[in-house]
Amino acid sequence: MDVELMLDQLAVEQAPAELTDRVMSALRSSDRPLPVRPALEAQASSPRRKWMPYWRTELLHGMVAMAATFLFIISGVFGKLTSLDPNQWEADVRTGALQLFHVVESVSRQLLS
Predict the structure, then answer these.
(1) pLDDT per position as a tens digit, 32-76
(2) Distance between CA 44 and CA 38 in Å, rounded?
């Protein structure tokens, strides 16, 4: 909560208005050609890629997800996750976040001094 109040007090920085124009003109005046990926073009035009339907990839991903879920249930990881006490877990997360905030704050102060 304190972090949110501190963030609300900070000034919002804006990018210069001409930044987009400078970047685009630098890209247009660049002597380098854009990289071409011949391997991807060849792969897209290959007959095997056209033959292999999109649903096979989705099926493979679904099977991997089912296998991982099955392993989590069998190994007991899923049971341990469901038996966590949410109140204790919330307190641990808050404590860890506060400790991290203090470490970042102290490192920032050392770097800025």
Answers:
(1) 666 665 555 555 555 555 556 777 888 899 999 999 989 888 888
(2) 10
Give the type of residue at 100. L
- Token pair 């001094």 is found at 113
DSSP 35-100: P--HHHHHHHHSHHHHHS-HHHHHHHHHHHHHHHHHHHHHHTHHHHHHT--HHHHHHHHHHHHHHH
74-85 burial, b at 16+ Cβ within 10 Å, e below that, comes to eeeeeeeeeeee
Question: What does each C-alpha distance from 75 to 11, 86, 101 come to in angstroms?
Answer: 50, 22, 35
Tokens coding 45: 């035009």
Q: Report the distance separating Cα 72 and Cα 77, nearest Å.
A: 5
